[in-house]
Amino acid sequence: MSRRPRRRASLAVTAVAAAVASLAAPAVVAAPAGAAVVAATAGATVLAAPVRARVVAPAPSHTVVRAGTERVLLALGDSLAAGYQPTYGTHAPPLDPATGYPDTGYPDGYAADIASARHLTLVDLACPGETTVSMTTVPAKAACATTYRGELGATSQLRAATSFLARHKGAVALVTLDLGANDVDGCVSASGISSSCLATRQARVVARLPAIVAAIRAALSADDPGARLVAMNYYDPFLGVAYSPGGLVGTVGATLSLAATTAFDRRLGALFAHARVPVANVAAAFHTYAALPLLVYAGHRLPANVVYVCRWTWMCPTSGSSSHADIHATTAGYRVIAAAFERILGPA
Fold first, then answer.
1. pTM for this entry
2. Residue 69: its pLDDT value, please?
3. Domains of the chain in sequence order
4. For position 71, what pLDDT does the model report?
C-alpha cells in the first residue's frame, strides 16, 4: 500500500509542547470546586484575534508502507482527528495520490502535526460526525463509508482500522483516538443544555466506548504489539457563548456547558484509565478550568478559558468576519491539541 509521509518542518510542535507544559496544568481533568466562567473584572491582558486556517497543499511525493521501514500513525475518531475546519465546507479531505482515497485527513490537523514531529506516515481514518454508534456500524459520512469499503473492504471505521492493522503488521507505531463528543454535542447548544439528553448519551458512551477500545487493543496485540494507543479528552467550545451572544445569557450558558464538559471528561478519563489507555489532557491545554486572569478578546474583557476557546476554535467570529461560529479547532488550536499528545508521548 503506497503512502506519502507527512513532513512539515514549519510545525513547531516541540516548542508548543514546551509552552503548554509550562502552564502547569493538572495531569487529569479535575475542575476546582465551584468552577465557573465568571471571574474578576481587573487586570486584563490584550490578546490577538483568532488565528485563521492556513491550508497546506498535499506533498506530491509518497513512499511505501512496509513493516520495518516506514512507520505509521493511525488516527481514529471524529472530525477533530480528521483535522476538520469550517473553511473546508462539505469537502472531503484531499485525495492521497498514492492510494486514490482521502485517507490522510485534512491539512493542519493535530494528527498531521504529531506525525510530522515524530517522522511518521499519517494514515487518517477518522470520520467527521462519528459517534460511538457509527464507529462500529454505518459511518457518519458517506464519503467515509466509500473509503473504508473501497480501500480496506470494511463497513465501519473500527473494521477499517483492524483491517489496516492486519494488512500492515508491524508498520504502526502509534494510534490516536478521540471519540464521544458527537454523542453528546447534540445535547448542548448556545440556547441551553438538555440534562436528560446528556444522561442518555453519556450512558451510551459508557456502554459502547470500552468495547471499541478493547477491539483496537486486541488488534494491536495481534498485529503491532509495540504500538502505542493514546486517547484524548475534550475542550469546551461552548465557553464561546460568553463572548457571543455574551451578557447574562452567554455567561449562564457557558457556565452550564463547563459543568457538562467537566462531567463528560471525567467519565472519559475513568473509562480510559480502566482500559489502561493514557489520555492527552486537551481540556487542560485549552485552560478549560482557568477563569483567571481576565483577558481581552476583540475588545471584550472575558475569563481566560473563554478567550482561549475564542483564539483556538472558530466559536467567536469577530465583527465584520464572514465566518460563522463553529466548534472545531483552528490551525493554532490543533497545534495545542498535538502538544497535549506530545506531553503524554514524551521525546520522539
1. 0.82
2. 65
3. 2-345 (3.40.50.1110)
4. 95
